[in-house]
C-alpha cells in the first residue's frame, strides 16, 4: 500500500479504536523513513503509527492475493512488483473511494496533510520533503488518474539507484489492472479487520 492507503487505514483504525489519529497518520508517513527498532526516539503515538505502517506492509507483502498479482507481471518486472502494486492499490482505493469513505477524497487528503505537516520540522529530512511535496501538489487526491500513477512510478524510478522498469511499466500494469483491482477488493477489507484485531487493545499514552 502507498500513502493514500496508509493514511486511510490509519484514519479508519483511529476511528474504531480511539488511538491517536494524528500519531497514526504521522506514522503512515514516517514508516518509509524510520528504520530499525523503535526505542522511544519519537512520541509514543507516532511510534504506534510507524508500527502500524510496518504491519500493513508486512501483511500486504506476504498475502496470497498479492503473490497472485505479482505472478501475472512480466518476469522482468517482478523484482519491482511490490512498488508497482503499492501504487496500483492506491489507484484502486481512489477509484472506489466513495464506497469506502464518507467524506470526499479531497477533503480527506487536505485533513491528512494538515495533521502531518504540523510537525514536519521533527521528521527525517526526506520525510519532511515528501509530505511537503504531497501537500503542495495534492498528489493523493489525484490517484484516480492513470497518468498520475505513471508519473508517480517515474518519480520513484529516479530514486532507485539501479536500472529499473518503473518509468515505463504503466502500459503493462494497465492491461492487468482489472485483475489487480479484483484482488485489492478482497484484500483491503481483510486487511482492515486484521489490523483492527491486532491494534484494538492498544492505547495511546
TrEMBL record:
<keyword id="KW-0275">Fatty acid biosynthesis</keyword>
<protein>
    <submittedName>
        <fullName>ACP phosphodiesterase</fullName>
    </submittedName>
</protein>
<keyword id="KW-0378">Hydrolase</keyword>
<dbReference type="Pfam" id="PF04336">
    <property type="entry name" value="ACP_PD"/>
</dbReference>
<dbReference type="InterPro" id="IPR007431">
    <property type="entry name" value="ACP_PD"/>
</dbReference>
<keyword id="KW-0276">Fatty acid metabolism</keyword>
<keyword id="KW-0443">Lipid metabolism</keyword>
<keyword id="KW-0444">Lipid biosynthesis</keyword>
